[in-house]
């Protein structure tokens, strides 16, 4: 279809509004394209519709708790506990965690696991009749930037509970006994109110007690933490987050009923992340495919950083109405600039390939396992004619 790239961009922007009437018109256009035999255009629209549907499915809906939520109601007027010596707060109270972070992009298996965990709290009374309680402790671990905190906030949002967020690395004190006292004060506060207790940087305090590098104080701290976890077991949901599960004391590890590892996003989840982060920019599918290809092995946080670099590029390099529109060549230029200014690139081989000569880049794109690039799209991306790309592919690689 002539000018389909423009129509596709309009559909992408319109679907982002989540207007049902607009979606219906896009579905009608899809049927027309299928009847006309335009398979390539129909496939592109089908992908847009599927991405929008998946985005809607991620919108968190609160579960209806039974009598599971015990304790006083936490309000904005309640102050968090403080360190007695420094008067600094031991935690941050987040009344509406859903407004702080967007819903996470989860694999189907992980989404199913979280749904089951949340359903336990809905069926609290039925579980109690069988002599068991819903899951009340959860450890989330994985590489930095994989969405651990976002997932914890998502759980709290679905439960309709505020979050008491404690970064345990900030609770350490040089005064003997103060760290243990701070831990006790934190748990005493969380046990009083209906909330989700979120322990960030958990490995800072839950270290191995037989670590020869640690002094005796850490053993007292871990023992206090174990006792506090035991007293909270029947009072609410506790979520701990760590980047280093191997540093945790085995006794601490056993205190958590559920352990969730946050993996690096697979290709389809990464594309959904990209589509969400790109809004409201208008980007052709080939540009999205390039960004997805270049971000192989990246965490969700790294994908967001790459997309933010593209948005900055759109403001710095475009003027007027063109600021919201980027063609694939713009995406390539923005990613090349991002490569120059970004750290930790030794394990980002695809991103580094973007700085290679055009011939090597063309070969890398066309021989990748993704299978999304054709000689036509690569020619457009590199500003060459298709005959040149075809000749490059026939030549022996350097």
Automatic annotation (TrEMBL):
Residues 134-266 form the AAA+ ATPase domain. InterPro entries: 26S_Proteasome_ATPase, AAA+_ATPase, ATPase_AAA_core, P-loop_NTPase. Belongs to the AAA ATPase family. SUPFAM superfamilies: P-loop containing nucleoside triphosphate hydrolases (SSF52540). The keyword Chaperone does not apply. This is AAA family ATPase. Keywords: ATP-binding, Nucleotide-binding. The lineage of its organism: Bacteria, Pseudomonadati, Pseudomonadota, Alphaproteobacteria, Acetobacterales. SMART domains: AAA. GO terms for molecular function: ATP binding; ATP hydrolysis activity. Pfam families: AAA. PANTHER family: 26S PROTEASOME REGULATORY SUBUNIT. The keyword Ribosomal protein does not apply. Gene3D superfamilies: P-loop containing nucleotide triphosphate hydrolases. Signal peptide: none annotated. It comes from the Bacteria.
């Amino acid at each position: 279809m002539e000018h389909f790239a423009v129509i596709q961009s309009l559909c992408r922007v319109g679907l982002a509004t989540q207007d049902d009437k607009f979606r219906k018109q896009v579905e009608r256009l899809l049927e027309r394209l299928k009847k006309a035999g335009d398979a390539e255009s129909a496939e592109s629209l089908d992908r847009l519709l599927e991405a929008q549907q998946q985005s809607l499915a991620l919108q968190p809906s609160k579960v209806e708790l039974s009598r599971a939520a015990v304790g006083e109601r936490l309000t904005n007027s309640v102050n968090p506990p403080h360190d007695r010596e420094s008067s600094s707060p031991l935690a941050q109270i987040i009344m509406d965690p859903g407004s702080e972070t967007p819903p996470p992009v989860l694999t189907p298996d992980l989404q199913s696991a979280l749904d089951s965990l949340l359903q336990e709290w809905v069926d609290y009374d039925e579980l109690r009749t069988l002599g068991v309680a819903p899951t009340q402790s959860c450890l989330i671990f994985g590489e930095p930037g994989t969405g651990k905190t976002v997932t914890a906030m998502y759980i709290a949002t679905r439960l309709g509970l505020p979050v008491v967020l404690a970064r345990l690395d900030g609770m350490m004190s040089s005064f003997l006994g103060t760290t243990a006292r701070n831990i006790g004060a934190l748990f005493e506060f969380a046990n009083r109110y209906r909330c989700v207790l979120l322990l960030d940087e958990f490995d800072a305090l839950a270290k191995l007690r037989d670590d020869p590098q640690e002094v005796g104080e850490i053993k007292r701290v871990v023992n206090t933490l174990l006792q506090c976890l035991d007293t909270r077991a029947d009072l609410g949901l506790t979520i701990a987050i760590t980047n280093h599960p191997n540093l945790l004391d085995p006794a601490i590890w056993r205190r958590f009923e559920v352990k969730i590892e946050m993996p690096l996003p697979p290709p389809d989840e990464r594309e959904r992340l990209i589509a969400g982060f790109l809004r409201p920019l208008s980007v052709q599918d080939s540009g999205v495919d390039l960004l997805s290809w270049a971000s192989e092995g990246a965490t969700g946080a790294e994908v967001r950083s790459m997309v933010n670099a593209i948005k900055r590029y759109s403001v710095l390099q475009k003027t007027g109405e063109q600021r919201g529109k980027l063609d694939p060549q713009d995406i390539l230029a923005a990613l090349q600039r991002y490569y120059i200014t970004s750290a930790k690139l030794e394990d980002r081989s695809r991103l580094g390939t973007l700085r290679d000569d055009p011939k090597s880049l063309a070969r890398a794109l066309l021989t990748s396992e993704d299978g999304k690039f054709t000689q036509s799209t690569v020619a457009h991306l590199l500003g060459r004619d298709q005959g040149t790309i075809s000749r490059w592919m026939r030549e022996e690689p350097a």
